[in-house]
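It is worth pausing here to work through a concrete case rather than discussing structure prediction in the abstract. The textbook approach is simple: state the sequence, then state the predicted structure, then interpret. We follow exactly that order.
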Amino acid sequence: MTGHISRRNFCWGIAGLTAASKLIPYSLANDGSKTLSFVFSDSDPPTSYLENSVSVGIFPDLVKGLFQVIDGYSIAQFSYPWKRAKLMVEHGEADAFCTVPSNATQEYTYFQRAPLYTDDFGYLIYNKDNPRAKGIEKVKSFEDLRSYRLMTDGKGSGWEFDNIPSYIKRVYAPTNDILLTQFVKRNVGEFFLKSIYEARYQVGLKGFGDKLGYVKLNFIPNSKLPFHIGISKQRPDAKKIIGLVDDATNSPQFKLRSAQILSRYS
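Step two, the predicted structure:
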């Protein structure tokens, strides 16, 4: 980012609830602002994405729900390519994001203790019309999956390479859209792995909801990824905010709101 927008335009953006591509957030902490600028990925539905220039998805909804039970602070939400969003928090151009904490991100952000949201990628999705569906429904180990083909988009994710044994055969599709079409209509591959929310969102867009079945696999290591709110250390009140976030996350009010929000995506 080469410059800052004016305070007037920033506040106008908050009031108008225009979140994303047209306005560039920046931290107003040094001016004593009680508004936090949150940035999200603009292309990872259903966790976060951009729709009609508004940040939508599980993360924006949960963050809004959380700050509804925190007194004294409000939020403005913006979406960008994820790499850019992270850099904005690192450089103090935005106040907060939601991500899996790493050694690198902990250098420049304070994270809440308990996760805002835990995504579980240990769901096996299969085609009910596949002749081998009955066997897939009963798998209990990686060894049981040895004779089945894992379908994945692109060249496969790093998570798959790290957690799924190499002896599991892979079938690659150029894109996720092509993956779903070939998987359902041509029985290419016997299963793929995704979080339940992501799978149902993508399958719903294609109109394949009644074609696919879901099996929770409890033997996959590291299938659960905890996403935490991180506040830029460049905000003078960052530690105070994280304390409020920790208290609110454990409150009965937010637990109820969180359950209601996630039910909309299931």
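Step three, interpretation. Confidence is low (pLDDT under 50) at residues 1-22. The chain has nine helices and 14 strands.
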